[in-house]
Model the fold of this input.
Amino acid sequence: MNSSPLLAINGGHPVTQSPVIIHKPHLDDTDFEYVQTALKSTFVSGDGPECRIFEQKLAQYLGVKHALFVNSATSALELAFRVKNFPKDSEVIVPNFTYTSSALGALYNDLNIKLVDVNPENGSLDVEKLEQAINPKTVAIVAVDYGGIPAEMNQIMGLANKHGLYVVHDTAQSIGSDYYGKKTGTQGHVSTFSFHGTKNLTTGEGGAVVTNDDQIAERIKILREKGTDKYSFLTDNQTRGYYEYVDIGMSYVQSNVLGALGIPQLAKLDKLNARRKQIAEYYLSELAGIKGLDFLKITEGSAHNWHLFGILVPAEHKYWILDALRAEGIMSNVHYTPLHRNKYYQNLGTDADFPGSMHFFNRLLRLPIYPSLTDDEMQNVVEAVKKIFKK
Done:
C-alpha cells in the first residue's frame, strides 16, 4: 500500500517505542479496598452478601426488576435458554457475526441455530433479513450489541411479538449504552451481560442475567445454584438448617469477592464510559475525511458506550494496515471471524452466503480504547493512522 521509507514497517522510526496496548482494565484503590474487605470477611464463596448488593445496584442502574450475578455471560446465555424448556430441535436465530457464546446458549440446550447475516456497516443483526429466516420451528432470536452499539431492538422486538418469539438480548459489550433513552438490558425478554476483564465493568470473570420476568428470575436462581433453593434459604433465613434440591441445575454462582469488586466498578461506570466517549470523539474528529477509512454506523436512537472503537479499512489492505500499525507501536487487532467460517459451525451444515458478515469482517480493525489511555497515547494512535494513510 504505502511504500514510504518513513513507515516503521518499511524500516523507518515508529511513532512510539512504548507500545499502546489494545485494552487495559481500569482498577483503582477503591476496587482493591472492596476486594480486601470481602476477603477479610472470610465469606469468599458464591452468592454472598456483596453479590446481593451488586445485584441490587445493577438492577437499579439498568432499570430492571431482576439482575442475577453469574460466573460468565456464556453461563447467562445458557441459563436464558435452559429456563424455557423449548422442545428439542427447535430453532434459534443467531447473528452470524458474533462471539461463539451467543450461539452456545441455544446449542447447550439441544436447540438448533439458524445464522442470519449482519449489517456490513456495524455487525448488527440485519433486520431486513430477519423475518425471512423465521419458520415454524423458530422459537427465539438472539440479538447482539456488537462493540457496545445497540442492536435495532425496536424492529427485532416487533418481529418477535408478531411471531410469538422469545428474545435473548446479548448485551455482553453494551453496559451503559442507551437505546431510545433506556439502558440496554431492558429491551429483550432476557439480557445477558459480561463482566470479563476486557469489559467496561469488570469483575475479572463474571456476567449477569437480567429480566423483568418474575418466573424466569425465580427459576434461574435455582438453576444457577445446582438446582437447589439455596437462594431463598439464605434470603429468608429459615432455621431448618438445610436447603432442598428442587430442580436440575449447574454451579453458575459467583464468588462474594468478585461481587464486591462489581460494586465500585458499577459506581464509576458512567465516569469511565465518559472517558471512553472523549477518546472516541477525538478519534472521530482527527481521523475524519481519510480516504478509505470509515467508522462503524451507530444505531439510530442509541448512545454508544464505546466498548470498542472500530475502523473500516480497504479489505485488500487490511492485514498490511494491521501490521503497519503494530510496527508503529499501536497494537491494533482483528476481532471475531464470522461464525460460518469456523470449523464447528461448518460441521453444523451451514451453507448459506453471508455477504454482510464477510464485508464487515474483511474491513474491520480495532484501535485501542480504554479509560486509562493517556492523551499522549491516543495522539500516538491518531498519528500512526494518519502516517499509514498518508493524510
Notes: Residues 8-24+269-389 form a domain with the Aspartate Aminotransferase, domain 1 fold (CATH 3.90.1150.10). The mean pLDDT is 95. Residues 192 and 209 are 5 Å apart (CA to CA).
